[in-house]
Amino acid sequence: MSCGQPHEVDCSEILDHLYEFLDREMPDADCTKFEHHFEECSPCLEKYGLEKAVKKLVKRCCGRDDVPSDLRSKVMQRIELIRSGQVPDSDVPATPVTPQES
């Protein structure tokens, strides 16, 4: 996705690291670059607003459940594999996977 306008930080980089920005898991200088980008780029600002709203909704609806540490670890490992490009997009399910009943 790109708005077609030149920016200090490219739209693709913004979207690739959007959750790091949302979670404040990046240096303040990088956060400032993202904020500046959002001021210039309405498509990225719209995507940011949508993801922020979804994150808020998930926290409100599911934020009270404790996640087993082994599940959290597996999910984080999978996310890192996907981010590093070690897992092709075709291996990432497009629909949520539901747990099997015991």
UniProtKB/TrEMBL annotation:
InterPro entries: Anit_sigma_mycothiol_RsrA, Znf_put
Segments forming domain Putative zinc-finger: 11-44
Coiled coil: none
Region listing for Disordered, in residue ranges: 83-102
Domain of life: Bacteria
Name by which UniProt lists this protein: Anti-sigma factor RsrA
Name of the encoding gene: rsrA
